[in-house]
Specification:
There is one protein chain. The strands form 6 sheets. The chain has a 6-stranded antiparallel beta barrel. A 6-stranded antiparallel β-barrel has the order 2-3-4-7-6-5. Strands 17, 18, 19, 20, 21 and 22 form a 6-stranded antiparallel β-sheet that branches. By secondary structure, the chain is an alpha+beta fold. Helices cover 14% and strands 35% of the residues. It has 3 domains: 280 residues, Thrombin, subunit H; 94 residues, PDZ domain (Pdz3 Domain); 86 residues, Pdz3 Domain. It is elongated.
Length: 484
């Protein structure tokens, strides 16, 4: 179970010690032979938001497919009283170090998605595990093998062997859920197996909590007030028809009634790859993006703040080949609207490499359509730029880029611009995120190569400015506004 402020919340007893393609065999959604669908397809449609008179029938229906996952990890500890004891009785020479190996237990939850024994859980539940055991409602224990893991979305697929078809839980549709609908969570909080809690769907599309990123660039969590605790990780969040609509995975560290679940539709796009390849291959566009703030929307002649602002286009990338430019605002990708900038990484990553997609952009206030062919993503290649906030008055000083400064900052030969020498900590520039050592490449969409050009580009009576800044290997836009 993850917690927002520190990303991970260790499960149960461990706390004491400290998208995409694939051709797969047909696997049934139910234990009955007449139903034969791949487990990642949607279950039956229909509204399931109403509160029943009792949740007992629903709990009885789902619980047989929910498992307690017991995990053991080996760890080595050195030192301690044991060494002194062995030295005293001559079992060890003075100063000789003999590392002690311990097995550290932890636990989580999971749910069966095929009668053949495939079980969905969280990556952090089984990551680096030396032994994984699935414990069923009737107390039966079965050794499990990790089939595939995806750390970026915290998904994992494990498998047990059974002598008869296992009870399964169908997968629902998280896309059309309504906030306020009743939901039920089943899991093993603090080792209390098959605990049932109920609540409502509190929100959708959560990727940050109080401005802090919950986990990664692909998060799009469901939020619920159904009680979620350590040990619930990997367990199902179900609708009132017993269909899994989320995978419980995170909690707000200092909050009550604030739990997060991976939407099942995201999982359905990744589970086939975990089954076939053991990992996930993602598409790569090759841009660095940032949020469109009100000041940036005004500068780039946008009617609203929707879309993802391109701060950098990587050389020889699909974006570069498609003629995307710095300053473009991506509003639609492969037919899907980009409402907020963090929608883009999720959609791009879930598109298979080699796919040719339409990219709709706004450039100088005019809409254009480009065609890009995605490539295979390497580790950490698509990252949002820093989401800088802007406001109020500004104040900073710059100087030309000398050879010595270029060497100190690690700038490539021929870098054009001016370097920020000082930033008044009480100024609008500081509040906008400008830092000492930043290299200003453009001001108000005009290239600058000297302090004078920067001054001219900013203008004497301007009440706002947009700077294109190089910071390290990336570039981003900063919008600065004077106090009114």
């Amino acid at each position: 179970m993850r917690k927002v402020t520190h990303r991970w919340l260790l499960t149960a007893s461990a706390c004491a010690l400290v998208a995409l393609g694939g051709v797969l065999p047909s696997l049934s959604l139910h234990a009955h032979a007449e139903v034969a669908k791949p487990f990642w397809t949607e279950g039956e449609s229909g509204d399931a938001s109403g509160r029943p008179d009792s949740f007992a029938d629903l709990a009885e229906k789902v619980s047989p497919a929910v498992v307690n996952i017991k995990v053991e990890r080996k760890t080595t500890l050195k030192g301690g009283p044991e060494e002194l004891f062995e030295e005293f009785f001559g079992q060890r020479k003075p100063g000789e170090k003999r590392p002690q190996q311990f097995r550290v237990p932890s636990s989580g939850s999971g749910f069966v998605v095929s009668p053949e024994g495939l079980i969905v859980t969280n990556n952090h539940v089984v990551e680096s595990a030396d032994k994984v055991v699935a414990v069923f409602e009737d107390g039966t224990e079965r050794d499990a093998k990790v089939v595939g893991r995806d750390p970026k979305t915290d998904l994992a697929l494990i498998k047990v062997t059974a002598d008869k078809p296992l009870a399964v839980v169908p997968l629902g549709d998280s896309e059309h859920l309504r906030v306020g609908s009743w939901v039920m969570a089943i899991g093993n909080p603090f080792g209390l197996d098959h605990t049932v809690t109920v609540g409502i769907l509190s929100a959708k599309g959560r990727s940050n909590f109080g401005g802090e990123q919950i986990a990664g660039p692909y998060d799009d969590f469901l939020q619920t007030d159904a009680s979620i605790n350590p040990g619930n990780s990997g367990g199902p969040l179900c609708d009132m028809k017993g269909r899994v609509i989320g995978i419980n995975t995170a909690i707000a560290a200092n909050g009550q009634g604030i739990g997060f679940a991976i939407p099942i539709n995201m999982a359905k796009g990744l589970l086939p790859q975990l089954l076939e390849h053991g990992s996930v291959t993602r598409g790569w566009l090759g841009v660095q993006i940032q949020r469109v703030t009100p000041a940036l929307a005004k500068t780039f002649k946008l009617g609203d703040q929707k879309g993802a602002l391109v701060g950098q286009v990587f050389e020889d990338s699909p974006a570069s080949k498609a003629k995307l430019e710095r300053g473009d605002v991506i509003t639609k990708f492969d037919g899907k609207d980009i409402r907020d900038y963090d929608d883009l990484p999720r959609i791009v990553a879930s598109t298979p490499p080699g796919t040719a997609v339409d990219v709709v952009i706004l450039r100088d206030g005019k809409e254009r359509k480009l065609k890009a062919t995605l490539e295979k993503m390497k580790e950490e290649e698509i990252q949002p730029a820093s989401d800088e906030q802007t406001d109020s008055d500004w104040g900073f000083e710059v100087q030309p880029i000398s050879e010595e400064i270029a060497s100190q900052l690690g700038l490539s030969a021929g870098t054009k611009g001016v370097v920020v020498a000082t930033v008044d900590p009480e100024s609008a520039a500081a509040r906008a995120g400008l830092r000492r050592g930043d290299v200003i490449l453009e001001a108000n969409r005009t290239q600058v190569t000297s302090p004078k050009q920067l001054k001219d580009a900013l203008g004497k009576n301007a009440d706002s400015a947009v700077l294109l800044v190089q910071r390290g290997d990336g570039t981003l836009y900063l919008a600065i506004e004077k106090e009114g």
